[in-house]
């Protein structure tokens, strides 16, 4: 593992498929010599504690820095959060960055927000039947990034930022955050591989791991390649 994060293996929508997570980690180590792994929820299929615990244990035992956010289906949120907390106490390489941030090797900062992000003045917030957050909450949770300007940034979003290349459903709030903070790479949820530039940032939807899809992204060079297990 390098002293700085360069090569990242990323996937979305694991949906409780522990075997595919094992295969992804094997590819990350042996095929790609990756420096980090990124997962964009949904981590579970049914929101059960055993699914979260299994996925996180496999991630932790791999001893590769791993960064992740929940998806809209990772609810109720309290169950997800409890299992993430338990796993991160045991495995130091695990980093949940839902509404938060964590540091990777070197001056690389990972930050993000999972679930569905909805724009508008008064969108409904939900954490029981699904994860749904107003755009202003993401802005508030990540305002600390203004104090961390010296770090190269990588964002993880369950919802893609608004961009014509990702079709309808993207968040304008997230697009503005990307333009404000200029991360090198933005990882976003989605079933299929997509890669578009937004300002000076590369936005990548790595594809659903539950369908055997993932991506390899070079942070410094802002390059992304689609792969299948």
TrEMBL record:
<dbReference type="Pfam" id="PF14582">
    <property type="entry name" value="Metallophos_3"/>
</dbReference>
<dbReference type="InterPro" id="IPR029052">
    <property type="entry name" value="Metallo-depent_PP-like"/>
</dbReference>
<dbReference type="InterPro" id="IPR029461">
    <property type="entry name" value="TT1561-like"/>
</dbReference>
<feature type="domain" description="Metallophosphoesterase TT1561-like">
    <location>
        <begin position="1"/>
        <end position="225"/>
    </location>
</feature>
<protein>
    <submittedName>
        <fullName>Heat-stable protein</fullName>
    </submittedName>
</protein>
């Amino acid at each position: 593992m390098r002293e700085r994060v360069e090569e990242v293996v990323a996937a979305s929508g694991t949906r409780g498929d522990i075997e595919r997570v094992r295969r992804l980690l094997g590819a990350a180590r042996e095929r790609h010599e990756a420096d980090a792994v990124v997962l964009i929820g949904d981590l579970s299929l049914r929101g059960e504690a055993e699914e979260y615990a299994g996925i996180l244990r496999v991630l932790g035992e791999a001893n590769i820095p791993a960064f992740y956010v929940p998806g809209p289906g990772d609810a109720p949120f309290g169950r997800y959060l409890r299992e993430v907390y338990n796993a991160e106490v045991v495995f130091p390489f695990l980093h949940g960055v839902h509404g938060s941030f964590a540091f990777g090797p070197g001056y690389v900062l990972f930050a993000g927000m999972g679930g569905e992000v909805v724009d508008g003045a008064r969108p409904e917030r939900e954490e029981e039947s699904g994860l749904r957050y107003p755009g202003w909450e993401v802005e508030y949770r990540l305002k600390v990034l203004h104090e961390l300007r010296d770090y190269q940034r990588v964002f993880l979003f369950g919802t893609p930022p608004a961009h014509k290349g990702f079709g309808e459903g993207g968040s304008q709030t997230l697009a503005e955050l990307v333009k404000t903070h200029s991360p090198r790479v933005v990882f976003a949820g989605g079933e299929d591989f997509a890669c578009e530039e937004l300002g000076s940032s590369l936005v990548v939807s790595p594809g659903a791991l539950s369908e055997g899809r993932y991506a390899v992204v070079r942070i410094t060079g802002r390059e992304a390649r689609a792969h299948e297990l």
